[in-house]
Design brief:
5 helices, single chain, two-stranded parallel sheet, mainly alpha, globular
Length: about 130
Amino acid sequence: MGLILIVVVHAGNIQDRDGARLVLERLGKHFGRLRLIWADGGYAGQLVEWVKTVCHRTLEIVKRSDDVTGFVVLPKRWIVERTFSWLYRYRRLSKDYEQLPENSEAMILIAMINLMSRRLAHGYAKQDF
């Protein structure tokens, strides 16, 4: 569905693979039943084994085929991009205005809460009682 489960904002000098560890550590505390995680090719390598041994989950890399040229919609990765586009509609998230990472995380969560509450309200209005 493209809903955000966990948000971690970190400094720009931390590589994505290292930042993924922060996300996955926080994820384990809240979502114990989650077993399969999809990621793009930038997360391949030692992170896959780390997720298996430390988090006891499966990290599956969604790779782009070498035979394909140009733009191609890849399975599961379009969900992440769609979620980013939802978030970028919010002015405070269009640029990095926040000074603290905690404030950025809060703004992302507020945007997602706003999005989900609008969806729930819209669905409620359509129901016949």
